[in-house]
Amino acid sequence: MGQYNGMMQTLNVALGDRAYPIHIGSGLIQQAELILPHLQRKQVAIVTNTTVAPLYLERLAKPLREAGVGVIEIILPDGEAYKNSETLNTIYDALLQNRCERSTTLIALGGGVIGDLTGYAAATYLRGVPFIQIPTTLLSQVDSSVGGKTGINHPLGKNMIGAFYQPKLVLADINTLQTLPKRELSAGVAEVIKYGLIRDVDFFDWLETNIHGLMGLDEAIVSYAIYRSCKNKAEVVAVDEHEAGERALLNLGHTFGHAIENAMGYGVWLHGEAVAAGTMLAADLSHRMGWLNDAEVKRMHALLTASSLPLKAPNLGVKKYLDLMQSDKKVADGKIRLVLQQGIGKAVITSDYDADKLKQTLESIS
Fold first, then answer.
1. Which pLDDT score, from 0 to 100, does residue 158 have?
2. What is the pLDDT of residues 4-18, one digit of tens each?
3. Judgement on whether residues 213 and 260 belong to the same structural domain of the protein
4. Is 25 exposed, middle or buried (0-12, 13-18, 19+ CB in 10 A)?
5. Which of the listed residues 72, 78, 259, 365 has the most CB atoms within 10 Å of its CB?
6. Is 42 a catalytic residue?
């Protein structure tokens, strides 16, 4: 894996002729030379939001303009509540008004919402234009910016409308985490821990030792955590880009978590917070199935607690949970497919669990 020495690290997402690099390091936003080779023509549209724009937009735009690139700026409102068709249309309006062509590259500068919206706009504007991800939150650096899932929410479900559409480049600048609210940092750590739980027990062990350094934004620890998370995700995406099999493991805690997000109103619980609470519900069911022992559940609980994540799911009632989980994308033949644990570092996708035990898990939320 190599030790972090303050230098940029690069990973490759192996998708044949659509392969692309992920660069991880400090101060990457200002380095136009990392972006220029990936532009078809010297025009970009940077999509960002009202929170990120004052902090980082100029740092990205100025070096590009100095390199002769035409820059269009599209600033959207901030929040999960705006990940919808109306906001998507705001992007289309700006692209059309500026007569953007198929060779214009969209750049997503922000967290998961900006990445998902921009990626979906890129997939659909003129039936597909290139785009680049510059994720500014930990959650988007380790998860949503990698792997090409794009989309918007619908009142009836999260991420129900979207496309698989890969970026040309991902730039993860760890300096942007300095301005990230602690709550958003914790939400990102939930997704980091997920990789340890589903397929990388050594990483889980490492996180138990280094969680305080990660929460304290120790540069070497943060860089390694992002690198290892992206490596895990890139490996999964390379073998299952369209989520026919193994990629669904990345949804650990998500089927429960999406139900929480939807019921509480998008944005009330952050995605990573809902995933953390959902992960503990999945652990509870796995334990009831005899797949996880007491010690393993305790280790999971301790690591998520050390990340300042809320682990107590809201009590929506069994019926409400089951209704919302039935409308999740992971349903196959009417049966809710869940990602459950058969030990730390070993997750399975299954609809072969005891439905009564699932009800007991949901009834245990008080």
1. 86
2. 456 899 999 999 999
3. yes
4. buried
5. 259
6. no
